[in-house]
Each structure stands twice: as C-alpha cells, then as structure tokens.
Amino acid sequence: MMLYMDTRGNMTVSKTISLAIAATLLAACQASTSQAALGDVAAAPFETAARPAPISSVPATEKGAAISSQVPPEVEIYATKEAGAGQKCMVGAETDEDGMNEKPVVYLSDVKAGFVWHVSLSIPADTYQGRATHCVASTNALFVLVQSDTQPQQSLSQTLLQVVKLDRKSGAVLSSRGIEVPNIFAAHTSWVEKGDGNFVLDGNSLIVMGRYELLSDRDNSSKKDASHFSVNISQNLSP
C-alpha cells in the first residue's frame, strides 16, 4: 500500500491502489461463492436418491403368490374334501417343534393356482389343543369340524366338538357353534371318527354323526361300548 502526504499534511491512501485492492477482494469472494454452489450441486444427488422399498410394503397378494404350494412339515392333514369349482378343502393341525399342542388349520387349494388361502383357528379357552378333522363346502362357505381336548392326559381329557363356518373367498370366520350330544346331561366326552359320511351337508342342514362316552363309565373301567349320536344343524349355525 502506498501513502502520500496531502497539502494539509495528512496521510492518505492512493485511490488507484484502493480500487485495485477492492477488485481483488470482490473476485475472491465470488470464487468462494462459486465453489460453495458447486458443493451444493454435488451433494444433491445423494440427498434425493431413491431408497429401496421395505419388504413390508409389498402387497399381500404378491407375497401370497410366492408361498409354496406344499404343506409345511409341522402340519398334519387329517382330511381332504372336494369343494367344487376345481378346489379342495384340506383340514388338519399344526404342532410345535416337539409335535405337541395341536392347533387346527384349514387350507383351500385350487387345482390351477395352488393354495388360495390358509387359516389357523382358535380353540375354546378351556382346552389345550385341537384339530380340524372334517370339511364340507357350499357355494359361499366352508364348514369345518374342530375337535379339541381339555387335557393332555387322554384318560382325564374330554373332547369338545365345534363347527366353524368360513368365508370361501377369504377364509374369515363367519360363525361357530359347539356341538352337544342330545339328551345327555352327565359329564361325557364325544368325538367324530374319520370319514366323509360323518360330516355331511344335506340341503340347508349339516349332519354330524359321532360317538360319546360317559366319564363315569370310563372312570369305572366299564367295558361298555361308546354310544352313537347324530345332530342336525342349520347352515347359519343357529341353535
């Protein structure tokens, strides 16, 4: 920087040099601003880049299409019944890794598309395990028989019977009803043996044919054979 004395004896900065210094500072400031702008442009692609969609966002229909048409090894199928329209109803039970604590399951399969849906059914609160053993189909619904045990020890357990009505399109539970042996008021156990003839859809009625045994006969080691029973109920499962 160059200084000179004015006529009054004051020290003054050369105007020419001052202008040059100002121009230099302005250029430096513009260059700094330009570099900062370039830095913003370079960062933008990382901020706006699309993230992969989480697996949970895949529509349920697409996830269902990827499910194998094979029944899992922990599921035992008790019965398979033709349901019409190229479909079959498959009923059984799913167990834990020790093969215990059965839970009833229902599969609707299609000859062309594989499994349409499958559901696990709840069992009564006072039972410890249950299995779906029979199935019949109407145009809009499936009717499933569930047999549940009250205790793990067979000699002490009672088997309770229940019919569950499922929506044919979705597998949703529409209604359910317990099956009681007619005119038997003493403590007893009841069951339905395998075979399509023991769970039949006849017009607007369901026919359940099974057997029962009084607990008193079992406790007394009676040699008396189990008795037979038959129950007719309406398709809407009303009492």
Automatic annotation (TrEMBL):
Keywords: Signal. Residues 1-36 form the signal peptide. Residues 219-239 are annotated as: Disordered. It comes from Dyella humi. Residues 229-239 have a biased composition (Polar residues). This is Lipoprotein. The keyword Signal applies.
